């Protein structure tokens, strides 16, 4: 299984340790095409590639993916863009949101949840994330 993970890069890297944990956990379920997003050393300046190259490469990976997992607590235009594409490509999507951040999740993300193809699940800690991912990928395997 190929997994596309998306989370904030230029929108802020405060949650980089969370992203790192998610990427490591996702590796149990398949190939994470976007492992670099979980690199805690990646800064909000990104990878140093041209914007067009990042866009084109990431859309290729998104098309290849069997499932998309997004950490959506930190608002990010890029993540929203990726989720919109994933939705139009009819990918299986899981969005993870941490309410304790004090933020409110966009209605466009939460409102897309149908409980089947698009799931939006609130979590409180990394143990919750592990359980959520286990359930999501068990359903995916069916």
The string of secondary-structure elements, in order, is: EHEHEHEHEH
- State the secondary-structure class: alpha/beta
Strand order of the largest sheet: 2-1-3-4-5
| Beta-strand fraction estimate | 15-25%
**Largest β sheet strand count, sense and barrel closure:** 5 strands, parallel
- Strand elements, count: 5
Low-confidence stretches: none
CA(first)-CA(last) distance: 13 Å
Radius of gyration: 14 Å
* Range of helix content: 40-55%
Features of the shown structure:
single chain, 142 residues, alpha/beta, 5-stranded parallel sheet, 5 strands
Short structural description:
The protein has 5 helices and 5 strands, in the order E-H-E-H-E-H-E-H-E-H. It has helices spanning 16-26, 51-64, 77-88, 107-110, 126-141; strands at 2-6, 31-32, 67-71, 92-97, 118-122. Helix 1 runs parallel beside helix 5.
Can you tell me about this structure?
This protein is an alpha/beta fold. It is 40% helix and 16% strand. It has 5 helices and 5 strands. Strands 2-1-3-4-5 form a 5-stranded parallel sheet, with helices on both faces. Helix 1 links the parallel strand 1 (2-6) and strand 2 (31-32). Helix 1 (16-26) packs parallel to helix 5. The chain is globular, with a radius of gyration of 14 Å. The model has no long low-confidence stretch (mean pLDDT 95).
């Amino acid at each position: 299984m190929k997994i596309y993970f998306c989370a904030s890069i230029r929108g802020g890297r405060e949650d980089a340790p969370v992203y790192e944990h998610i990427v490591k956990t996702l590796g149990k379920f398949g190939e994470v095409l976007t492992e670099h997003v979980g690199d805690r050393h990646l800064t909000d300046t990104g990878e140093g590639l041209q914007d067009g190259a990042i866009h084109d490469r990431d859309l290729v990976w998104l098309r290849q993916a069997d499932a998309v997992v997004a950490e959506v607590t930190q608002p990010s235009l890029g993540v929203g863009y990726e989720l919109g594409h994933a939705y139009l490509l009819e990918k299986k999507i899981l969005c993870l949101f941490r309410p304790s951040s004090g933020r409110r999740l966009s209605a466009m993300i939460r409102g897309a949840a149908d409980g089947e193809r698009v799931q939006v699940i609130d979590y409180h800690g990394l143990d919750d994330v592990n359980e959520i991912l286990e359930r999501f990928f068990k359903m995916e395997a069916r």
